[in-house]
């Protein structure tokens, strides 16, 4: 039997992704009604975190408990991975004991190598290239507030980082138009942009980008691992701050999203997260429900 991994949105078909986010909303409803649903009883998720996390850790951990299973939090400080045990060996060992493995890491290749040697599903909990679990929650959030995103105009403002790359892949998988407004030299990865073809446009002016948009997204200007570049990036990205005034140029029913954590006064103005068009806290909550749907998809026959 081939093992299904979730390293990027392209590991699922568009039909699978759409049914995953619908299922996420169903599981959310059941959970809020107090229903007990434990298809993963006695199943174990190992979670390797090489970078910090609040939402990803808590949503996977809470999700496994709610589905009847357990999770194990592993940091390089406490495991032999941190002392140089090869990824290949770690993958064989952990996958002989656990039912799935979530990894948050730096190089995306680490995930690819781990998956190659793992006997159980591997889930990308964020790499330098991609953050597909976040996009499941984002797409679920749009669906719940506005219905299908197919054919809509989505905008990314700021750094062409791991989140932006994932939106580029999402444009194809969920069939929407994506406009990216970023400074020169901070574009999303050319490999993903080329694969997306004419679904993705890159512009420099945030006002031009948001005109008529149905969804506007941004993220931090310096991602985890880029701490040394933070000061230089701050100056370069200043014109790319998202504010309520910028959203006024978008469609009347625009939604604003940010994967969080956010830096008020930097990529978002101090008042933006409290604007009625912002759904960032629904988005964060949906990490729980979307990943429960993902775990069910990968682990329940
Ligand atoms: N959005 C997100 O992945 O948050 P954490 O870094 O807190 O997990
Ligand atoms: N781009 C950010 C996302 C954090 C959830 C980072 O990689 O740090």
In short:
Helices cover 41% and strands 14% of the residues.
Features:
amino acid binding; Ornithine carbamoyltransferase; alpha/beta; four-stranded parallel sheet; single chain; globular; ornithine carbamoyltransferase activity; Rossmann fold; 2 domains; binds phosphoric acid mono(formamide)ester; five-stranded parallel sheet; transferase; binds norvaline
Note the topology.
Blueprint (H helix, E strand, L loop, with lengths): L13 H19 L11 E6 L5 H12 L3 E5 L12 H11 L2 E5 L3 H10 L4 E3 L7 H15 L6 E5 L4 H13 L2 E5 L8 H7 L3 E4 L2 H5 L4 E4 L11 H8 L6 H4 L7 E4 L21 H20 L2
Parallel strand pairs: 1-2, 1-3, 3-4, 5-6, 5-8, 6-7, 8-9
Helix pairs in contact: 1-5, 1-11, 2-11, 3-4, 5-6, 5-11, 6-7
The structure holds phosphoric acid mono(formamide)ester and norvaline.
């Amino acid at each position: 039997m081939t093992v299904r991994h979730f390293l990027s949105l392209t590991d699922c078909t568009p039909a699978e992704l759409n049914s995953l986010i619908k299922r996420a909303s169903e599981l959310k409803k059941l959970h809020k009604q107090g229903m007990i649903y434990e298809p993963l009883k006695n199943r174990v998720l190992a979670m390797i975190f090489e970078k910090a996390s609040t939402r990803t850790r808590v949503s996977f951990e809470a999700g496994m408990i709610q589905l009847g299973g357990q999770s194990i939090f592993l940091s390089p400080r406490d495991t032999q991975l941190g002392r140089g045990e090869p990824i290949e060996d770690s993958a064989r060992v952990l996958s002989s004991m656990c039912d799935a493995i979530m990894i948050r890491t730096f190089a995306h290749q680490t995930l690819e190598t781990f998956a190659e040697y793992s006997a159980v599903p591997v889930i990308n909990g964020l790499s330098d290239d991609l953050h597909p679990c976040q996009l499941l929650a984002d797409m679920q959030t749009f669906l719940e507030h506005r219905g299908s995103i197919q054919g809509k105009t989505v905008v990314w403002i700021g750094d062409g980082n791991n989140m932006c790359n994932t939106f580029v892949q999402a444009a194809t998988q969920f069939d929407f138009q994506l406009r990216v407004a970023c400074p020169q030299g901070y574009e999303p990865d050319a490999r993903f942009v080329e694969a997306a073809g004419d679904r993705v446009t890159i512009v420099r002016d945030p006002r031009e980008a948001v005109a008529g948009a149905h969804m506007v997204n941004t993220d931090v200007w310096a991602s985890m691992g880029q701490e040394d570049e933070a000061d230089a990036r701050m100056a370069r990205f200043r014109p790319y701050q998202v504010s309520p005034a910028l959203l006024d140029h978008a469609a009347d029913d625009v939604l604003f999203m940010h994967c969080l954590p956010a830096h008020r006064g930097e990529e978002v103005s101090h008042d933006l997260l409290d604007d009625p068009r912002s759904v960032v806290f629904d988005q964060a909550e949906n990490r729980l429900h979307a990943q429960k749907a993902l775990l069910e998809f990968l682990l329940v026959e």
